[in-house]
Design a protein that fits this description.
Elements lengths: L7 H37 L2 H20 L4 H7 L6 H34 L14 H8 L2 H6 L4 H7 L3 H26 L3 H20 L12 H25 L1 H9 L2 H38 L3 H37 L7 H8 L3 H4 L2 H9 L3 H37 L2 H14 L4 H6 L3 H17 L2
Helix pairs in contact: 1-8, 1-12, 2-4, 2-5, 2-10, 2-12, 3-7, 4-5, 4-10, 8-9, 10-17, 11-17, 12-13, 12-14, 12-16, 13-14, 13-20, 17-18
């Protein structure tokens, strides 16, 4: 068959496979660098420094997602995604948003400083750490740099240019890692972590302009493009606002109920579990969303459903096995990687691994985005928000942070019922396929238990 005779389905499959391979390679490399850097820094810095950085990072992420209009997702999904006028308008909105976020970061930093001055911050908590206000202010500047990121990066995702995306991300992460290690070695201070984030963001933004193909951005304000951005983004904005308060609500609550050192230990468990979550969300956003969006734009519901479950099979098998494995193996993993100061992270990681059961339904969110049904994503995140912010204060009052960690692991369970309800309406639900993968969870737990037993004898 000549190359010109390749069917659209085969062409899409090849591009999706190529994108998957590049993203998997990038994920393995990225997480190896991330873990290696964390292991080194855990020996150079005190646990409380990680606790302070958790709060600073959480504030930056919360502010960013409270104002997220889904500009990248809109460019990937929209029929106007290649229109320079549409792209320039999105870029202008993105820049304005970056400056607003930085101003809000300075406001939060000022409040944190004043709360410490008048002794409003709980004594011994992470919020009382003297470094926190300045770290919040400096970390917030990353929003300005991110705001100038070129829309060429979003176009690269839309057109499956994964090789360039991977190289750019690897380069920015490598620079950030080197900056962190050098400054950390010579100063043993939290500013090595702050400088790493700023350096990585600067490199990423620069490469988005010079490394990728596409129309150069300029400031432009088109009313029709802005109208489409708002129509798509209003539900994404609501979804992101409540979603980030659900996803990062644990750190907000624990910042006032844990010391900086305790929160630093908790952050280790979150980091390791987050590596899996980042991998799944990366594959879903970088591979599944562009592929499903292309089928949705063509109105091919049959192929969209088949492709959705093809992605789901891979994600379900991997996450259910990982969930079972971490339930039994987490304490041993922590003892291998970290010193005795971080031992409690093993128990927390085992509990938090239960969240992988619901994480596998994140692919439904990409299908809804591809179909332009952003309101369902908003409702899903509202359920998460209400569940977490009801459970955590209740469990903290009943049994402290030990109980509350269980709430963090299980708060998303109610969303499973919502996903099933919506997917049935969209023709994206198959009970047999949902049930056939479940044995992977006990299989993972059994494998972990046997591995633990084997390692005890050697």
């Amino acid at each position: 068959m000549a190359s010109g005779d390749i069917s659209p389905s085969m062409n899409l499959r090849r591009r999706a496979i190529s994108a998957s391979v590049w993203n998997l390679g990038a994920l393995v490399t990225s997480q190896a660098m991330r873990l290696g850097g964390n292991l080194i820094m855990a020996r150079l810095l005190m646990p409380e420094m990680f606790g302070v950085m958790v709060i600073a990072t959480t504030v930056a992420v919360v502010l960013a997602l409270l104002s997220d209009m889904g500009l990248r997702q809109n460019i990937i999904q929209s029929p106007r995604g290649n229109d320079p006028v549409f792209l320039n308008t999105a870029w202008t909105v993105q820049i304005l948003r970056g400056f607003v976020l930085f101003a809000l970061s300075l406001l939060v930093a000022s409040f944190a400083w004043y709360a410490q001055v008048i002794n409003l911050s709980p004594a011994g908590s992470t919020y009382a750490a003297p470094e926190l206000p300045l770290v919040l202010a400096v970390t917030g500047f990353t929003a300005v740099m991110t705001g100038f990121q070129s829309t060429k990066l979003a176009l690269a995702f839309r057109s499956f240019q994964q090789r360039k995306v991977v190289i750019a991300e690897f380069s920015s992460q490598l620079v950030g890692l080197l900056v962190m290690l050098v400054i950390g070695y010579f100063t043993r201070s939290i500013w090595s972590l702050v400088a790493a984030g700023l350096a990585a963001t600067m490199v990423s933004t620069t490469l988005s302009h010079v490394w990728f193909h596409g129309p150069a951005n300029r400031l432009q304000w088109d009313s029709s493009a802005l109208k489409e951005l708002i129509a798509f983004g209003r539900w994404v904005l609501l979804s992101s606002a409540v979603g980030v308060l659900a996803a990062h609500g644990d750190r907000i609550w624990f910042g006032g109920s844990m010391s900086a050192a305790e929160l630093g230990v908790y952050s280790i468990a979150v980091l390791l579990l987050g590596a899996i979550e980042i991998a799944v969300r990366r594959l879903a956003a970088a591979v599944a969303l562009p592929a499903l969006s292309e089928l949705a734009r063509g109105g091919d519901a049959v192929r969209l459903r088949a492709l959705y479950y093809r992605f789901r099979l891979f994600i379900d098998l991997a996450l259910l096995f990982a969930c079972g494995l971490l339930l039994t193996l987490s304490p041993l993993i922590i003892s291998w990687l970290y010193d005795a100061r971080y031992a409690d992270a093993g128990n927390k990681l085992a509990i938090l691994s239960l969240s992988l059961f619901t994480l596998r339904f994140t692919l439904a969110h990409q299908a809804w985005l591809a179909l332009g049904l952003t309101k369902y994503l908003a409702v899903d995140n509202i359920i998460r928000f209400v569940s977490l912010w009801t459970l955590l204060p209740l469990l903290l009052a009943l049994g402290g942070t030990t109980y509350a960690v269980w709430g963090v692991a299980l708060y998303a369970l109610p969303t499973v019922f919502f996903v099933v309800f919506i997917n049935r309406r969209l023709g994206l639900f198959d009970m047999r396929r949902e049930l056939v993968v479940l044995p992977m969870l006990p299989l993972g737990a059994l494998f972990g238990a046997l591995l633990m037993r084997f390692l005890e004898y050697i």
